[in-house]
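Researcher: Good morning. I'm working through a list of sequences from a screen, and I'd like to move beyond sequence-only analysis. For each chain I'm collecting a predicted structure so we can compare shapes side by side. This is the next one on the list. No need for commentary yet; just the structure.
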Amino acid sequence: MPNVIDGSGKVVREVAAPELLTRDFGAKAHVMFRAVYRELANPRAGTASTKKRDEIAGGGRKPWKQKGTGRARQGSIRSPQWRHGGVVFGPQPRSYVSDLNKKERRLAFVAALADRFKNGAVTVLDAQDFAPQKTAAFAALLFGSAKAAKTGPKTLIVCGLGEAAATAITRASRNLQRVAVTDVGALDVKDVLGYERLIFTALAYEAVLARIEEKK
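Model: Good morning. Structure tokens for this chain:
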């Protein structure tokens, strides 16, 4: 069960994890892999492009005669072995979009969260009237001390959409290299698996539980 901490970092209570997040999804690792692959691949522009020898201007004349010069035979100055020549098997514009149906996307998200719950890597922050002013104080809240923040676990703080404390949390954590902040609506599988610890505000925690309980 995740711990709930207050603005000083003190554990005030525990909250129960839903039954769905206590299941073992170890056999669904391939679905999580496909989800992460999709999330990383889909934003790619796919505009990388190189020219083949027949697409480069010039090179229509044979550089020198076939025999008698003592040099290797050449047919065009745009051959791949020449400087400014064509590229062999170079990248061409393409789409990197990978599809994954809605049920598999939801399964991957739930399985990733369940893994974090299983490993005790989820904490809930009571952000009511919470407005940290100093980065050092916020680092002490998350890691125990500002020094420990340099080597502590990579932490993702998840805030509710439009939450009042989100701005203050983002400002206080801006210079902490091992801390990132995101909205609960933008949370995806690669974020859940990419960080060693997840800290949800109370509002974000309720939102993510509502999200995984949806039947669509």
